[in-house]
Amino acid sequence: MKENYRNPDVVLDIHDKPKGIKWLGLSLQHLFTMFGATVLVPILVGINPGIALFSSGLGTIVYLIVTKGKIPAYLGSSFAFIAAMQMLMKDDGYPAVALGAITTGIVYLIVSAIVKRAGSAWLDKLLPAIVVGPVVMVIGLGLAGNAASQAMYAVGANGEQVYSVKYIAVALITMSLTIFFNMYLKGFMGLIPILLGIVCGYFIALAVGIVDVEPIRQAAWFALPDFQAPFVTYTPKFYLTAIVTMAPIAFVTMTEHIGHLMVLNKLTKRDFFKEPGLDKTLKGEGLAQIVAGLVGGPPVTSYGENIGVLAITRVHSVFVIGGAAALAMGLSFVGKLTAIIQSIPNPVIAGISFILFGVIASIGLKILIDNKIDFNLKRNLLIASVILVVGIGGLTFQVGAVAVSGMALATLFGIILNLILPEKAKSELE
């Protein structure tokens, strides 16, 4: 792909730079969409959400620099490490998590060096359209259950899930408004349907009484994130458990990373495996994880939500991504604003997610259609079937503290079937 190529099907391509209020609005939209998942991880683990927001922004900027500003990807807190981080936080505190995050980053750097030496031509053989298409569908549909749960269940007095018609109504109204904004608004307003959907959904949630405003009242305007730096706030120690527990999970997130790149390739009409190269994308994410561990945040990784925003808005500008990262770092110091964003209720996020995750799945379907995959062939039917059920069903293979599940396991099965199955079944040769 030539350096000066511009995708004619987008509003803003990768190197297009918006101006003024338009830039601010687009970056805010991107940040708001990433925010829910980014702060959910530290909340579940017991890490300060403010530092997670800061580290996601800083990690994203590191990634953009390493990949030479050629890939529109925002990095957020990784869900893959939640169980391991919860265990480490309980036993040894954040210093152990930090060592684990730095270790996973080093694993990325080692694999990046190997890929740089071996090249990435092998990807074409391992990941043809019949594997890529269903895997991309799994990326979107595998998250569908989370979105549905967020839309249906409130938290009861004893912490139990309680079915809520009010939650469903807010989610569906948010979804409907976002679809309306996407279809019928023009100009600048037509570029920020997701942001408008979140804002409108938030006000509706306020009106029906499902927003907890007390944390907003109590939050200070200026609140320093809970930075945790080795030799500054704590004395580093060697935690073998952290290394053994978290390092293998890096290979799971690498699989997700490759899956997201496959979708971005299709979406942007480029080949990021060749330019800037898989070695640089892995290096960028690895360094971002190390930086996150050095400032006090959880490991960061690429996000499916990011792809959904790019697909819906057709705004692929790295300047918008960089703006969202800078805003994340800045807002992490503003206690009131951080509290407002944290107060966005689950059904509002769910209403947006119905669209974002569905769009990702639709891109996977488009890959199969564009490559004219013949499902009359048993080989193709079997590969797609196994990937979809294993990935969406959440089949998990666990050995000790290391677990491979969902998209990662589905991708592995797809690759193996693609390599061992003949082009045609014996019954098809008769």
Structural features, described:
There is one protein chain. Helix 2 runs antiparallel to helix 13 (273-295) and helix 12 runs parallel beside helix 14 (304-313). The chain is 67% helix and 5% strand. The longest helix has 26 residues, at 20-45. The mean pLDDT is 87. The strands form 3 sheets. Strands 1-4 form a two-stranded antiparallel ribbon. The protein has a two-stranded antiparallel ribbon with strand order 2-3. The chain is globular, with a radius of gyration of 21 Å. A hairpin with a 5-residue loop joins strand 2 and strand 3. The chain is built from 20 helices and 6 strands. 50% of the residues are buried. With 430 residues, it is mainly alpha-helical.
Number of strands: 6
**Which blocks of ≥5 consecutive residues have pLDDT under 50?**
none
Cα end-to-end separation: 43 Å
Number of distinct helices: 20
Radius of gyration: 21 Å
Strand order of the largest sheet: 1-4
Gross geometry: globular
Strand content: under 5%
Succession of helices and strands: HHEHHHHHEEHHHHHHEHHHHHEEHH
Largest sheet: 2 strands, antiparallel
Give the helix proportion (percent range).
55-70%
- Helix/strand-derived category reads mainly alpha
Overall mean confidence score, pLDDT: 87
